[in-house]
Amino acid sequence: MTEFAQDNLKSNLDNPAAPSVLQWLPAAFLLGVVGIGAALAVTSKGARTFPVGQDVVTGQWMGTYEKNNLDPGVPWRDASVNLWGGLNYRAFGEAREGAVVGKDGWLFTSEEFQTDKTDAVEIAGKVAYIKQVRDDLAKDGAKLVVALIPAKARLYAEDLRAKVPGQTAPLYEAFREHLSKAGIPTPDLLAAMRAAKVQGNLFFHTDTHWTPLGAEVVAQVLAPVVKGLNPDLPAATYSASEKPPVQRSGDLLRYVPVPEGEGPAPDTVQEGVYSRTDDGGGGLLGDVTLAVTLVGTSYSAPSQNNIWHFDGALSKALGTEVLNAAQEGKGPIIPMREYLKSQERKHNPPQVVVWEIPERFLRTRY
């Protein structure tokens, strides 16, 4: 499951790169297709077959009728949506709602371009909750470090065609400043990642996530910050290697419904492999309690889709095994809420918790 939060998209996406004709042309196209399809559907034989034994008052009858009779009878529905998406991309260089097309094959999530009148309240609430987490951890003697991951559109602004709303310009630095003033270590990952861009891509062209290099760069920045809190880190050594390069189609390509070869090219990636080389391991089951816990999103979570292995990069940089409590598909807040009440925390009390928070989630309500 990818963590592209399509269900969190707001309705006031402002994309100045889109021609004004796009405000009415998609609606006219789809209305025409749906109108013809609806006429064919209601005159089909299936439309005259009605459900039996379904409750009308609660809407059960209508839901069953729509699902079993009308929907299958509307031809071209999915095909028409994909057809328009393809035409829109070829003619205007625009993706379907959910992604924004940049230059030279770069795609960006629409979340990074959206604003709302409630943003200030939401961001203030995030700051307050992070302080609350800091205080909760402190009761057990643990310290909090926030890894604030800059938005892809901020880091690669030179590859945009659309403009990011002006009110988002100060967001990263302002949020980091709020946390720093509260005594919560929040290193400047934006500056570090900008400096590291000469080494290679830190985000995938066609995906919302960072590359293995991006994860490694951030781990190298975080390691001295964590060590500076003077935790007692059980020693562990790791080797790092890379798998052969492969092509990888990112989660944003689903919003560019064109045949292969006509849209942005897939990314080429070499997955990093981090292997523990000493005799230790498995702090939850053995005698060693792991000192550092990582909480966060799919940028960190262990899964078959995770090829960036941030936990491995952080373990190697710290020279200690990191307990990974990140979760995929839930944003940054819910995994922390669940971790604070978890058996993982109870049985493996941390000395330091690293909380990975992507900037693109700061305005999202949870």
UniProtKB/TrEMBL annotation:
GO biological process: alginic acid biosynthetic process
Keyword Cell membrane: no
Protein name, UniProt field: AlgX/AlgJ SGNH hydrolase-like domain-containing protein
GO (cellular component) term, any one: periplasmic space
Localization in the cell: Periplasm
Pathway, per record: Glycan biosynthesis; alginate biosynthesis
Residue stretches spanning the membrane: 21-42
Keywords annotated in UniProt: Alginate biosynthesis, Membrane, Periplasm, Signal, Transferase, Transmembrane, Transmembrane helix
Organism name: Deinococcus irradiatisoli
